[in-house]
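New to this. Look over this protein:
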Amino acid sequence: MKRVELVISCEHASRHIPRPYEPHFVHAQRILETHRGYDIGALEAARTFQRTLAAPMIAGHVTRLLADCNRSEHNPALFSAYTRSLSRKEKNRILNRFYRPYRQSVIGTVTDRIKRHGHAFHLSVHSFTPRLGQQVRRFDIGLLYDPQ
């Protein structure tokens, strides 16, 4: 029987704005403190899983409002209203410095576990705001999966 290895990730762990991009977020301080800026409580949950399950954990280091590491590179929502209007060159800098290294780290860790143990289970930890627009969300946990 092949061993299944766990890999934990937390894409929206931080609300940090790197210094070069601070001017784009001057009026976003209140937003950065909310669920729009980061997944409140998700990093703490991911760290608890990491300690309890002795699994590797990869956490995002910048706010999802810079570039959302949980989205594919061609997703129209990859960049937020704060970064969407940046030049292609500047967006590519963001992708090269923050987005791609994060994604490559997760993919590399999962791939390594599959090569070593035959299978891997990737647990991506997120938190949910109890209200999204007009919709009240009454659930304790959500599971999304890729059957492949």
Summary: The chain has a mean pLDDT of 92.
